[in-house]
Amino acid sequence: MIEGLLTSEATWLHFFIYFALTLLLLLIVLGFVTYAILAERKVMGFMQLRHGPNQVGGRWGLLQTVADVLKLLIKEDAIPRAADKPLFILAPVIAFTPAFMVLAIIPFTDRFQFADIGVGLLYYIAVSGITTVGIVTAGWASNNKYALMGAMRAAAQMISYEIPLVMSVIGVILLTGSMNLNDIVLAQESGWYILWQPIAFIVFFIAAVAELNRVPFDLAEAESELVAGYFVEYTGFRWAFFMLAEYVYMFAMSALITVVFLGGWLPLPYLGFIPGAVWFALKFMVVIFLLIWFRVTFPRIRADQLMEFGWKVLLPVAIANIFLTALLKEWINLF
Amino acid sequence: MIRTEEMLLNVGPQHPSTHGVFRLVIKIDGEMIIDAKPVIGYLHRGTEKIAENLQYTQIIPYTDRLDYLAAMTNNYVLCHAVETMMELEIPERAEYLRIITMELGRIASHLVWWGTYLLDLGATSPFLYAFREREMIINLLNEISGGRLTFNYMRVGGVKWDAPDGWIEKVKAFIPYMREQLAGYGDLVTGNEIFLNRVKGIGQYTKEEAMDYSLSGANLRCTGLAWDLRKNEPYSIYDRFSFEICTADTGDAWGRYQVRIQEIEQSLRILEQAVEQFPETGEVMGKVPKVIKPPKGETFVRIESPRGEIGCYIASEGKKEPYRLKFRRPSFYNLQILPKLLVGQNMANLIAILGAIDIVLGEVDG
Amino acid sequence: MSEKDKEQLKKEAAEKARAAAQRKREEREKKKEKSNDSASEMPQTTEDVTSNQDLEKQKAAAAAKAKAAALAKKKAKEAEGTETEPTANQDLEKQKAIAIAKAKAAAAAKRKAKNANENGDSEKAKAIAAAKAKAAAAAKAKGKITQAKETEVSEPITPSPQQPILDRYLNIVKEHYKDDILEDSYINRMSKHVPTIVVKLEHYYSLALLFKQHSGLHFEFLSELHGTDFETYMEIYVHLYSFKNKQSVALKVKMDRENPRVDSIASIWPGANWPECEAYDLLGIQFTNHPDLHRIMLGEDWVGHPLRKDYEPYDVEV
């Protein structure tokens, strides 16, 4: 349906239908963020012998995040006097927009996808890189040393981990012969890529956690070192935008991992009667849970160790994986 | 042409990882620290000056507020100093109660350190695990003293309150529980690769440097020097218990971590023996004159607090108030080596080094 | 360039401000001195630099006076404290107790007399008896205490187990110094029998160095350093420990109260750095050759040194 809209005539009606669908996705994403935050707090609570939110919105604290967002909305919008004002205002926008843009190419089911482009995977990685520009802008515009250090860390981390991230999926691309995410999902009907490409999955997952700036790679906002890192000067809704960007990325990255390695909406054998959307959601939630679990378990890695790990371990492993995959493919083709 | 500049960075006094109001002015090149200057005194309350106008019993609550994580040892050092001057006899039961409360306090203090140190390193969960166990200790101490943090429990000549019924049994039950949890801590953190990478070889110094800088406690023992006042200059009734001095030979943050974790185990051993030998009956307050007037003269005693060697100097004129009271505060001495350790390190190591020293600002500033 | 200029300007401004502050402080002091001239028991806080020579002279004179006065006072106090307290004081107390008891008894008797028509004599007698008994008990208690004190005093003093160690220290010191550099040396029984050595001010540093380096002493651990204001003099108390010989020593040095100045031992034990800063901050003791002497607790703008006995709390806001 969406595909049809894209290729159809550019009329106002089509525009509004498309706009409404996008709005729907935005609402879904915002709803996800609301409950992802709650889920994270609840899961963390259970793992840390606490209850987590349990006051606002019944026993499960279902309205806690809503209340938090409301609070953020009515907070004073403080901009430091010495800050670079235009950049300071622009930075959260730069950080958030790409987070939402990358969602366009994710095939949630075989029909619910906004843009089925040929270089989907490349698009995701390219666009998600822009967020770092927003982070660096925020760090610079805040005119705060901690913010600047956080921004620099974020930039360094992005450069170090974008490369193994891309390198690791090359194995998948080799096997599929396409960068289109739909093709990648369909190629997994004979078996998910987590089975064919386990090394790629591990490298990709680690690099993804680093991309998301989450524990143990949360150097850019390391609370105990840099207070809050790049958004230390942000308050209210501007701050919320960074948080939003972070969780939308978590959404997008989990969706990408589901698509690339866990077979997207494809069901497990003999369980095909369950709709694809449910399968997608289940796999997606497993990834999210894993990310939360990571956060509760690990201490933070140090900046230099992070670089070392990225360049000296992940990158060679990813390259070796490409080599291995290429050999394997040739060998299979031979027979 | 790229021009780089040194940056002056103010860490604290309001920084999440300075454990209080500690300020550190560092000069950094990128993330590399090239100079560090600690600034203290934000929590200076003039305890020593206030004490000059107070009677000895009135000073005890002030000692609670020095090292507020291990208030029992602070209580004790003052009482011990006065008792040494007056050559008082302490009843058995009181001595045991003192040992039990002090060792419980030591465990609680090390637990807080363990939790907050891991928090400094970015791991959030251990903190909550540590506080679960600490809460139990705090409840035990609350039951016996009526306070959760500032106990004001010991008095010159004994302790203020006898153990309530069943209290000793509760302590007895706590020991095996704590042992089990301690093993869990090992599984959770001690073997973690990221953690080991963060602490091994960080903030390293030699035994000679440690002695030169007057370090004490785990900061000294991590260099391999088996020095524990409980063993080497036994005070109270520590000579009745068998326990080991925990040492490590690495002299780095990892060594300090190991020493403190082992010390929890040793404290449990002491506790085990103490509750076993605990006298059934007896006084908890010795024969002490109503108004405590140590004779004219001066004394200096030192004991082992969780943070190191805590000392108390009293100059008395034979009056109700001390003429001069001075605490040797281990955190204050231990912190001195910090600038030396920081040069050449990066921001992340700063937190790891500072945390490993284990300071309590109430004690640093006096 | 411009930054440098700026900095220079800043510096100059700061210096100006400082100078102004200094001037103000001096003026204030002058005023104080005038008002305090007659009652010179209150010694002035020693400020380091004064351009006015007269002022300094005056100060010195005042200080000397103050010192003398304080000394006299202290002596008097001590004399009182040591001599009169155990005997006269107690007698007094005893008398007091007896008097109180008597008064009580009398009051009771009076009351009884008023109600005489209601009650018999027997009660009166009882009351009197009770009062008497009380008084007797009080007297007894007093007697016991005095007795106890007397026995304590009369106990023969056994030599301390640490005495040979102190002797050994003294021998080593004698070997290294021709003349007598010690003011005093004794065993402090109250402090777990620690050998205590009081050294003359000018030999403090060299003796500290000897204590650290001599193989027979080898005090490599500085456990504690602090100062005390004893009103007639200032004292630095250093507690040293030798891990090698498992022995400790207390090293003391006394100095002039008005201009307390002593060599820093932070170059011998780096651990003495902050404690010396603390002593400087809270007592105003100057440590020469200290690597970084600053007011570690209170900050550079604090007026006065709180642990001095004549410190006047000064707070603008109160």
UniProtKB/TrEMBL annotation, chain A:
Recorded topology in the membrane: Multi-pass membrane protein
Spans traversing the lipid bilayer: 12-38, 87-109, 121-142, 163-181, 193-210, 247-266, 278-297, 309-328
Pfam families: NADHdh (PF00146)
Gene symbol of the encoding locus: nuoH
Source organism of this protein record: Cytobacillus stercorigallinarum
GO molecular function: oxidoreductase activity
UniProt xrefs under NCBIfam families: PRK06076.1-2
Main location: membrane
Family stated for the protein in its record: Belongs to the complex I subunit 1 family.
Cellular location(s): Cell membrane; Membrane
E.C. number: 7.1.1.-
Subunit: NDH-1 is composed of 14 different subunits. Subunits NuoA, H, J, K, L, M, N constitute the membrane sector of the complex.
Catalysed reaction equations from the record: a quinone + NADH + 5 H(+)(in) = a quinol + NAD(+) + 4 H(+)(out)
Domain of life of the source: Bacteria
Functional description taken from the UniProt entry: NDH-1 shuttles electrons from NADH, via FMN and iron-sulfur (Fe-S) centers, to quinones in the respiratory chain. The immediate electron acceptor for the enzyme in this species is believed to be ubiquinone. Couples the redox reaction to proton translocation (for every two electrons transferred, four hydrogen ions are translocated across the cytoplasmic membrane), and thus conserves the redox energy in a proton gradient. This subunit may bind ubiquinone.
InterPro entries reported in the protein's UniProt record: NADH_UbQ_OxRdtase_su1/FPO, NADH_UbQ_OxRdtase_su1_CS
Keywords: Cell membrane, Membrane, NAD, Oxidoreductase, Quinone, Translocase, Transmembrane, Transmembrane helix, Ubiquinone
Protein known as: NADH-quinone oxidoreductase subunit H
Automatic annotation (TrEMBL), chain B:
Top-level taxon in the UniProt lineage: Bacteria
Catalysis: reaction(s): a quinone + NADH + 5 H(+)(in) = a quinol + NAD(+) + 4 H(+)(out)
Membrane topology listed for this record: Peripheral membrane protein
Record keywords, A-Z: Cell membrane, Membrane, NAD, Oxidoreductase, Quinone, Translocase, Transport
Enzyme class (EC, first level): translocase
Listed Pfam families: Complex1_49kDa (PF00346)
Keyword Lipid metabolism: no
Compartment(s) of residence: Cell membrane
Keyword Membrane annotated: yes
GO MF assignments: oxidoreductase activity
EC number annotated for this UniProt entry: 7.1.1.-
Recorded family membership: Belongs to the complex I 49 kDa subunit family.
Annotated function: NDH-1 shuttles electrons from NADH, via FMN and iron-sulfur (Fe-S) centers, to quinones in the respiratory chain. The immediate electron acceptor for the enzyme in this species is believed to be a menaquinone. Couples the redox reaction to proton translocation (for every two electrons transferred, four hydrogen ions are translocated across the cytoplasmic membrane), and thus conserves the redox energy in a proton gradient.
Protein name (record): NADH-quinone oxidoreductase subunit D
Species this protein is from: Cytobacillus stercorigallinarum
Name of encoding gene: nuoD
From TrEMBL, chain C:
SUPFAM superfamilies: Nqo5-like
UniProt xrefs under InterPro entries: NADH_quin_OxRdtase_su_C/D-like, NADH_UbQ_OxRdtase_30kDa_su
Domain NADH:ubiquinone oxidoreductase 30kDa subunit per the UniProt entry, residue ranges: 198-312
Region span, Disordered: 1-94
Record's compositionally biased regions (Low complexity): 60-71
Database matches in Pfam families: Complex1_30kDa (PF00329)
Biased composition (Basic and acidic residues): 1-36
Superkingdom of origin: Bacteria
Assigned protein family: Belongs to the complex I 30 kDa subunit family.
Annotated protein name in UniProt: NADH-quinone oxidoreductase subunit C
Organism: Cytobacillus stercorigallinarum
Lineage: Bacteria, Bacillati, Bacillota, Bacilli, Bacillales
